[in-house]
Amino acid sequence: MDNITHTLFAATLARTSLGRAGRGATSALILASNAPDIDIIATAGGSLKYLEWHRGPTHGPLGIVLLGLATAGLVWTGRSALDRWRPAAHRGVPGARFGALVMLSILGVLFHVLMDLATSYGTRVFSPFDWHWYALDWMPIVDIYLLVALAAGLFFGWESDAARRRNAAIVLVFMSANYGLRAAAHERAIGMAPRVFGPLLPSRCDPGPSPAGSIVSRWPRAAPSAPSGPATRCLVEIAAMPDLASPFGWRLIAQLSNAVEVRDIDLLDPRLRTPTGAGAMWRLTLRYPNEWTPAVVHASGTRAAQVFLGFSRFPAVQSVAARDGVSTVRWTDVRFSAGPRPLGRPGDRIASLFGVTVQIAANGQILDAHLGR
Question: pLDDT at residue 195 above 90?
């Protein structure tokens, strides 16, 4: 989730009984609810370093505890300094005990991680013990309805303690209903996927559980170690990504062994109510080639590609060889792509966290590897 949502949610929690812990409770909740994103300091080492550590240990078990303790200590120290500077300003307002600040801070960090987990962006919730990403795919990164509800609850509930508590309760009920609606719509979208993608959807690569049957998605999967092509075409995973504008709008993604197919749907579309209507929609599917040629396998060994493939959930790759023998390989994370793009000129760079480009000389030497294109 975005930091504005995290902040507004923390301020809403502070208007419940949690805020009665005493002076400093609101500050602890707000600071802790944003603390995991302190990993942005990794940008000092460049965008590749940031992507490597993005939503890593600060979003894992150790981060929840240590950031909670650090936030509580910061609020406790700051409040003590403020009390010495302006002692009369806080007479009659008891300060929260340090133990209460620790509890509130850990709770704030935990809610941050859980809210990130519910999005399609995901988080590495077990880092540093497990560096896989996990996501529920219920919520977009920014939910405008949740933002409006949280902001309205805070703006219209300031005149009295009773009004603040009442509005906070209303907003939290709305928030729960919003999450429930998104979760139900997500399951409905997943159920529609086989009909929407149509008869060309291949059988599963893994004969085990359905790729759409897991509640929590987990990635990355092991990258191919050998070239792949149409002969090995099979279904790896089906996923549904939430739309920013509507809880009924979803982007269906079918990851195949040699391609990624995408189709945007609206669950309110009457064509989805009949098998014949949904069956005609597969012709509008957008297809991203993802064949691992020898050049792609070689390029995947670079550090830039390794970091990107560790982050990307649906990486699709293009490769082309120029007349001089130089091969250009580009991966794109389909979650954040508007469509396949032609490979640019060798010197044409566009910075982005959601793609990586590798250039290989005719003799196999890596000429360049960088995020973006």
Answer: no
Among 5-19, 106-120, 352-366, the least confident range: 352-366
User: What three-state secondary structure class fits 2?
Assistant: coil
- pTM of the entire structure? 0.89
Q: How much is the pLDDT for 34?
A: 97
How many Cβ atoms from other residues are within 10 Å of residue 363's Cβ? 6
The Cα-based distances of 309 to 302, 303, 350 in angstroms read 11, 10, 18
User: Same structural domain for residues 251 and 334?
Assistant: no
CB hemisphere CA count around 290 (13 angstroms): 26
Domain endpoint, select from 135, 154, 176 = 135
Cα distances from 305 to residues 87, 103, 320, 327, 343, in angstroms, run 56, 40, 17, 15, 16
Mean pLDDT value across residues 35-56: 94
Length of the chain: 373
C-alpha to C-alpha distances, 341 to 72, 258, 299, 316, 330, nearest whole angstrom: 48, 17, 19, 11, 10
Read off the pLDDT of each residue in 225-243 and give the average, rounded to a whole number.
79
Both 45 and 111 in one domain: the answer is: yes
On whether both 66 and 105 belong to a single domain, the answer is yes
CA atoms within 13 A on the CB side of 249: 7
Torsion of CA 265, 269, 275, 281, to 10 degrees: -40
- pLDDT tens digits for range 71-104: 999 999 988 787 776 665 555 667 889 999 999 9
pLDDT of residue 347: 46
Question: Same structural domain for residues 130 and 12?
Answer: yes
Would strands 235-242 and 217-219 be described as parallel, antiparallel, or unpaired? unpaired
Region 199-216: mean pLDDT is 72
296: closest CA among 233, 352, 224, 351?
224
Q: Which amino acid is at 266?
A: D
| Tally of structural domains, the chain | 3
